[in-house]
Amino acid sequence: MTTIRKGTALESALSIDPSDLPSGTMxxxxxxxxxxxxxxxxxxxxxxxxxxxxxxxxxxxxxNQIVTFPDASGTVxxxxxxxxxxxVTDAPTTLDGYGITDAQPLDATLTALAGVxxxxxxxxxxxxxxxxxxCDLTAAGRAILDDANAxxxxxxxxxxxxxxxxxxxxxxxxxxxxxxxxxxxxxxxxVDDDGEIRTAINSGACPAVIPSTVWMMLTxxxxxxxxxxxxxxxxxTANGRLTLPTGVYxxxxxxxxxxxxxxxxxxAWDPVGAGTATTDRWAHQSYGLDNNSxxxxxxxxxxxxxxxxxxxxxxTNTGTxxxxxVRGVFRVSAGGTLIPSVTLATxxxxxxxxxxxxxxxxxxxxxxxxxxxxx
Length: 375
What we know:
Elements: E1 14-15, E2 27-28, E3 46-47, E4 54-58, E5 65-69, E6 75-76, H1 108-114, E7 122-128, E8 131-136, H2 139-145, H3 150-157, E9 172-177, E10 183-191, E11 197-198, E12 209-210, E13 212-217, E14 222-223, E15 231-232, E16 242-244, E17 247-258, E18 267-270, E19 278-291, E20 301-305, E21 311-313, E22 321-334, E23 336-338, E24 341-344, E25 351-352, E26 357-364
Parallel strand pairs: 2-3
Antiparallel strand pairs: 1-6, 4-5, 7-8, 9-10, 10-11, 11-12, 13-26, 14-25, 15-24, 16-23, 17-22, 17-25, 17-26, 18-21, 18-24, 19-20, 19-22
């Protein structure tokens, strides 16, 4: 079966099998007279002839011969001009007009897109090759997307117009350039992964450290428990407990007590107490006054310890009051808690007075034994 579509010029011989005619096909014989322009459904015309040289279709407007049948073999020859588009009527406007009812464009991407369900404030995006999904695209997001440049986007975000360097040192702290008015510059200061700040002073293998400080102070008198066992030294918080990560620390404590026993000794000081942190490298010293009026004048005495967190404060004086300052360093090799504690030499409900305090500063990593450009 040979198909001739509307508006198509036949430029070569076509062989038509007369028996190959589908239903609904218009069949023109050699004796039919066809005048004017004829429209055939689906743009198809099938013809056969037994009469040589019969002209089956011609254009009345131009007298151009369109189709002739030169012999009885069924061979169709085109000897005239093509049928002009202006002579074509009733052209289909959809694929269905050509008899194509289940058409799909030859593109897998279009097929995938056709299967995406869209809604308001949604954006289609690719999840793989010819695979798509949707995500939210809010009004705020669209307000950024339609900005022409980065400056406009910063204005939309209210982020100002500060800009930074093209590259910087790992963990480096930026600094503001007051000369340019809006540029962030790289600096030699940095922040370790554990939050410790290193400065540009004596920058070397171990640059100088800005200590991280924690502290606690009594703002009201605290009556200790009447016991000879270790107990927390501060009740500023419920447990008087501090959690510390690994590192090297420096500390200072000021202890002011009244109502102590006058019969024997005073107390021992332990910054760790019943805490869970693993500590070592202790080196601390206490000095102070143990008498009935500890804030008055008198000879200060002290003790030192480099073996453990426990430091016997002042010694065996027997005054009912005491003031002492304790300073030292230590290392936390495994992070945990500290419960700064005191152990009274004689059990009694002594009073830790307001103004007593403890300050702890982290001055290095637990792996360090120096900081600065030492050599």
